[in-house]
Fold:
Amino acid sequence: MTPIVSIWPLAAILVSLLGALPIILANRQPNLRESWTILIALVKLMIVASLLPGVLEGNSYVFTIAQVIPGVPIELRVDALGMIFALVASSLWLFTSIYSIGYMRALDEHAQTRYYASFAVAISATLGVAFAGNLLTMYLFYEMLSLSTYPLVTHEQNAEARSSGRKYLTYILGTSIGLALPAMMITYSVAGTLDFTSGGILAGKASPELLALLVVLFLFGFAKAGLMPFHGWLPAAMVAPTPVSSFLHGVAVVKAGVFSIFRIIFDILGPETLQSADLGSLITYIASVTLLIASMVALTQDSLKRRLAYSTIGQLAYMVLGAGMLSATGMLGGVMHLAMHAFGKITLFFCAGAIYVASKKKNISQMDGLGRRMPITYLAFFLGSLSIIGMPPLGGFISKWNLLIGAVEGDQLVLIVVLLISSLLNAAYFFPIIYRGFFVPATDGEGDGIKEAPLFCLIPLSVTALVSLALFFYPDTLLKLARMALGI
Amino acid sequence: MESILDHVIAKYNYWIYVVLMMIGFYAMIGKRNLVKKLLGMNIFQTAIILFFISTGAKKGGSIPILDKYAALQGQVDVNQVVNPLPHVLMLTAIVVGVSVTGVALAVMQRIYRKYGTLEEDEILHKIENE
Amino acid sequence: MKSNLHMYVMAAPLLTAFLVNIFGRNNRKVIAPMVLGALGLSSLLAIAVLKRTLMLGDLSYTAGAWTPPWGIELLVDPLSALMLLLIAAVSFIATFAALPCVKRDLEDRQHLFFTLYLILIAGLMGLVLTADAFNLYVMLEITSITTYGLIALGRGRAPLSSFNYIIMGSVAASFYLLGVGYLYLLTGTLNMADIARYLPALQGTAALSTALAFILIGLWIKMAFFPLHGWLPRAYTDAPDGAGVLIAPLMTKVTIYLMVRLMLTFQSPTFPLISMDVRTLVIWAAAIGIVCASSLALAQRNLKQMLTYIIIAEVGYMVGGAWLANDQGMTGTLLHIVNDALMTLCLFLAAVAIAYRTGSLHFDNLKGLYRRMPWTMAFFTIGAFAMIGVPPTCGFYSKWYLLLGGIEAGQWEFVVALIFSSLVNAVLFFRIIELAYFGSLQDSEHHAHASAEPQEAPWWILSPLALTAVLLIVVGLSTGPLVNNIIRLMIPVGF
Structure:
């Protein structure tokens, strides 16, 4: 269990950060630029994967970048929890890069170099969040992620994109500087350290009132997790190109928020400390409210991407809910959902993008009969939505099942009801889309000439849908990592 | 009442400096003419210089030009000579004050050439109309 | 230990100032190598001084061999060596950008400009070195007078701004001088360390409080501490570009250092300089100042003017941090002096680069600048992130210490003000980034192959800008050694 000093965690982060340079330099040669992107994504995935066996054996890899504040260096540490997030993020980045090529070229988008470079920086920051060894380092990369995704949100450069970008920064930076930073400072001045330590660093050092304050500050401070009332940025950020929405606002950015909250609950505040202060219910109630409201709002959205965004807000709350149960099964469900939802949601976003590329349609009400024209896309969409709803035989079932068991074990009747209602709502907002696609005929003359999106779009979305399926049958590695992360 | 009066009379020189300083300060802040501001600044500085000089003065003290050997043998009564250090310091302060005045006058010339007036209100008026 | 080494650091620009005046009059080409050579030498020597002080302890030089406390002592300890290095390095870097600006704006007066410029730098170094309260006044006036002159060289309403600065600056200097006079009356000495020895006996007397109040108010005016900041925005905005890059990063910071130095010298366990009432008052003033200056910055429509209000807000950070009177706050202040100098330098260099190419810094003029000056804007962005306090740029770490100091001292108004100001900075800078990067596109540009010819700033401005931007990150990452090896050494126990 001794930590091994290794440069590879740093390499995994740097490869895409430095990789942004050749991408910028290849500004005028799109093919070279995109080859770089794919190459960097592959290298990155390989580095992350090469660390996996060691982590599975119970090792952790550490690397100290700089000494900045007494007791709090900038330090990377690869452990099981970080590994889950890093694996999900770096594998999905590869698919997203391939998908981006199809999407961006099909739409002949402007400023593609900026787009790919920002993307590369964003994925570096995401891995940094995953591999951070203490709260300060995590905060550092969290901010870097916020800033590097801003150009992606504002990509369209029209008034709507600019106002969304503003909203994005206001929510994300406002909460991280205004809430998370003070919470971090208070934690440091109470505990004298910010290292992630299994079981938390505040045991016996903080009064229940202070803990409650910290819980609230941290939960809302990491607004990327989209807990209401700080969720407004996510639907607004949907003006970004679809690969951005799918990867960043379906996976990397939002999960970075949830992941941060996991770290806070597991390794800073400590489940047992929270339990003894009876604060689990505070977390689960905050999450439950978000969960229900977001699912209901999703029902009312006609824009496909906005509906997916509200669905994401709801699903993120599931994960927080799981962590807030503070029981082994509940937390396991929360962690597993982080991975399962990633594969499911990215499939759905890919599909939304593919539909837009093929037909220029954004609203669900216009999508009658499209399923017959784009059968592969719609099939993938079907699989993805099943996974999100939590039905077998898809990965989402495993995580949601664990969440439900966790609620039952904890005798938390309210949570059981919330989970059940919410799953029904999930089904209610997904199935009409599929139904319209396959069974409502298109209005006359519409839809002629629409065919499947380019292969660059189609392949990634099929693969991620299949991975969602495969994760139901082979969840062992993920489960093992999650159990190790939780020490169960 | 009487004791305060005694107090004032006993240290009348310091009270004069305070009055001078107030006059200078008022001119710097209250007057709208740049030359008057500068004059106020000079009065202000002069008051401080006088204040310093006063601190070195002694009743019946003579100029501090001493016989080196007598001084080394401790035959000089320090109560008989004025403290020269404040004078020396104020020489420097006077030089500084003159330099500042010089710079201010030069700047003022540029202002006058540009706007044709040294009344602050009129200058600001002209700047707004530019 | 006796040494002359630190005097050479100061002598290099001082002597070159006169040489530039003589030789540069007829031959413009010698100006650049002379100025850069002197400041480069100064920087190297400052590094040597810093090393030597860290190894051997304080270095002292006595003017005219009059032993202190009678003679004037020029003393350097690790902290003032750090400040010396900061001044030398910042002025060295700034000079690269100043040269082309001065060449363009003041074609036939270059030698005069650089004479003042170098004397100003020497004066700043003298301020840091001197251990004598009256000598400090002289140095203060040397820097001020040269600054008045440099600002008056600017265009537009610069002379008027300079004149207002002269009046305010003279009030400040006179107040300081008056305070020193009182101290001299009370202690009979002008050597700062010597004064500190007599202070405990005088504790609580009205005369001493008056003396300290005069000194502090004098320094506060000079550093533009809210609400005594009125002169700064116009003076710094109207200064010629070549002078702005030097004055803006250094003047206020050095004055703050002086305040900190006096506090550290006078404060002792037997003489708590910082009484509770005054402390609370000053910290409230700092907090209100931060909030007001940040809000005023929001109202500006000109980049340089906006930056000047940010400088005022940052002064509030540092004054407040010092008066928190705890270890963390003081560390934060000293660290922020270094960091803020670099951040301000970076942003002013970027502003100068933009002004050099486009002629105006009004917000309307910044639209789409990213396409025309991509590198300048990239470095500007790094500087902006440092100002906002985004890790790993250096701005984050000093803010960290300041916040921690505020939390430990229980001064929540200061903590709130700092966070408010960080958020406002984020708004300020992202407003500009949005204009420069994401202005609306023309239809023709809306596709993959649109291109605009870049019109980057000249290398003379761009390379120092790049260097500063890199420094912001390097200094940020070496915060640990900086704090442990230099700053912590200088903060007395029990602070």
Summary: The first helix of chain B runs from residue 2 to 10. The mean pLDDT of chain B is 84. Helices of chain B lie at 2-10, 12-30, 34-56, 68-72, 85-115, 120-129. Chain B has one domain: 2-129.
